[in-house]
């Protein structure tokens, strides 16, 4: 019988799932090993059959185990005993309840929006010529030009679509894939933005979650998995800030091509790379007919005025372009017109450069404060974004009642099951803070470090 310890005061299903994942990671359970039957597990642990059934169902959804008629349940993940601990298959399964407001906080940035003076002038012009014929929107071409200048992507105008945000684009992609594959499976990076998870789960996708470490998505885990599509943010993973390494990009692209998997790349956090050397999008470095690319202006223009551009394979474009019209409304057209006029103005590059400079100063102040207090706080994330994550070194005790409210411990929004590279990390949404607030956080951590 499996060596599982169950505390009946906590969620029993989750304990079983966590226990079997840990035994698989340690190598005590290997590919092909059979699990006890539902009845045997129930009798052994003195728990209800319902709890065992629920746990096994979660493990099946994660791809950890499979069931065969008349054969029972067996381990379906492959563990290589020679791999390092970071590349061992470790799959998470659950976000913590009530984490959505916390996740939305991470994406909030006070320094992001179209300047008020431009917005006022825009609506004044609309009001003065409200009876005139509206001119065609050129936002698609303007956003294509932005991708070329900032990410060196030559967007095919005839296979790109514009939506109000990334979630709207992902919805069209999910619906199109669902039409082709009635019971599709998608691999999501873990942690993952809850709205992305909700889009695919609400449409009946089987979801497999693969964790991220300091080098990005643990692509070694993919070898034992089967899926129709995979979604990830390789340039700046949410919410850790980790960047997918070049070696892992190569592996991921080869795996997707070998298994005919749609690769959905969300590059929204990379349009702020002015004067910075960054990794090329997978869409550019590993072109494929199965690649899908999306990027958003929201972190430059503000979420209320954001617009996203999605680049699609020719094979998928006809189905998605039909869905694009459904997403249009009078409100979105007005928003697109505002964004279009702003992108066409002579101030956009200057404003983005000023925004990047402001972000860089905040990032520098925050990271220097952490290094002064902790030496090597293992910072993941880059200045062009709006957040990064860090680790408080072992031996430093923090009073959570006095912990800076602007910072978000990873463990408060995700169930990380003791994986040290995730569970102990702190998310620092520096773009949402003023310089004085960052200085106060620096003073707080320096005082703690000096006292201990």
Automatic annotation (TrEMBL):
Highest taxon listed in the record's lineage: Bacteria
InterPro entries: Aminotransferase_I/II_large, HTH_trans_reg/aminotransferase, PyrdxlP-dep_Trfase, PyrdxlP-dep_Trfase_major, Tscrpt_reg_HTH_GntR, WH-like_DNA-bd_sf, WH_DNA-bd_sf
Keywords from the named record: Aminotransferase, DNA-binding, Pyridoxal phosphate, Transcription, Transcription regulation, Transferase
Pfam families: Aminotran_1_2 (PF00155), GntR (PF00392)
Transcription regulation as UniProt keyword: yes
SMART domains linked to this entry: HTH_GNTR
UniProt GO MF annotations: DNA binding; DNA-binding transcription factor activity; pyridoxal phosphate binding; transaminase activity
Residues of the HTH gntR-type domain: 10-78
Family of this protein: In the C-terminal section; belongs to the class-I pyridoxal-phosphate-dependent aminotransferase family.
Name of the protein in its database record: Aminotransferase class I/II-fold pyridoxal phosphate-dependent enzyme
Organism, as annotated: Yersinia massiliensis
């Amino acid at each position: 019988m499996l060596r599982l310890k169950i505390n009946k005061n906590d969620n029993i299903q989750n304990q079983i799932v966590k226990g079997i994942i840990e035994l698989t990671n340690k190598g005590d359970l290997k590919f092909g090993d059979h699990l006890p039957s539902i009845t045997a597990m129930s009798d052994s642990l003195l728990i209800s059959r319902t709890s065992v059934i629920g746990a096994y169902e979660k493990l099946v959804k994660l791809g950890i185990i499979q069931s065969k008629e008349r054969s029972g349940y067996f381990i379906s993940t492959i563990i290589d005993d020679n791999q390092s601990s970071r590349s061992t298959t470790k799959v998470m399964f659950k976000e913590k309840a009530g984490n959505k407001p916390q996740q939305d906080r991470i994406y909030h940035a006070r320094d992001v929006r179209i300047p008020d003076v431009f917005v006022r002038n825009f609506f004044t012009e609309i009001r003065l010529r409200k009876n005139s014929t509206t001119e065609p929107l050129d936002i698609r071409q303007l956003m294509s030009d932005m991708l070329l200048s900032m990410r060196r992507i030559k967007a095919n105008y005839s296979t790109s679509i514009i939506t109000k945000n990334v979630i709207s684009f992902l919805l069209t992609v999910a619906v199109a894939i669902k039409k082709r594959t009635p019971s599709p499976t998608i691999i999501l990076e873990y942690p993952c933005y809850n709205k992305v998870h909700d889009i695919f789960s609400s449409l009946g996708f089987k979801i497999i979650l693969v964790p991220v470490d300091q080098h990005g998505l643990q692509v070694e885990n993919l070898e034992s998995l089967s899926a129709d599509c995979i979604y990830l943010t390789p340039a700046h993973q949410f919410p850790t800030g980790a960047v997918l390494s070049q070696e892992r990009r190569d592996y991921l692209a080869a795996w997707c091509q070998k298994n005919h998997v749609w690769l959905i790349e969300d590059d929204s956090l990379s349009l702020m790379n002015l004067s910075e050397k960054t990794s090329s999008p997978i869409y550019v470095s590993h072109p494929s007919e199965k690649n899908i690319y999306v990027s958003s202006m929201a972190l430059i223009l503000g979420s209320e005025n954001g617009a996203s551009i999605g680049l699609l394979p020719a094979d998928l474009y006809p189905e998605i372009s039909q869905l694009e019209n459904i997403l249009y409304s009078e409100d979105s057209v007005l928003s697109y017109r505002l964004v279009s006029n702003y992108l066409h103005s002579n101030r956009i590059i200057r404003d983005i450069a000023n925004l990047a400079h402001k972000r860089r100063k905040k990032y520098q102040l925050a990271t220097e404060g952490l290094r002064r207090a902790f030496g090597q706080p293992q910072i993941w994330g880059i200045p062009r974004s709006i957040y990064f994550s860090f680790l408080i070194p072992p031996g430093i005790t923090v009073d959570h009642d006095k912990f800076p409210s602007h910072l978000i411990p990873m463990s408060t929004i995700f169930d990380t099951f003791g994986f040290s590279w995730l569970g102990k990390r702190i998310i620092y949404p520096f773009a949402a803070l003023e310089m004085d607030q960052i200085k106060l956080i620096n003073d707080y951590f320096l005082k703690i470090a000096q006292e201990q």
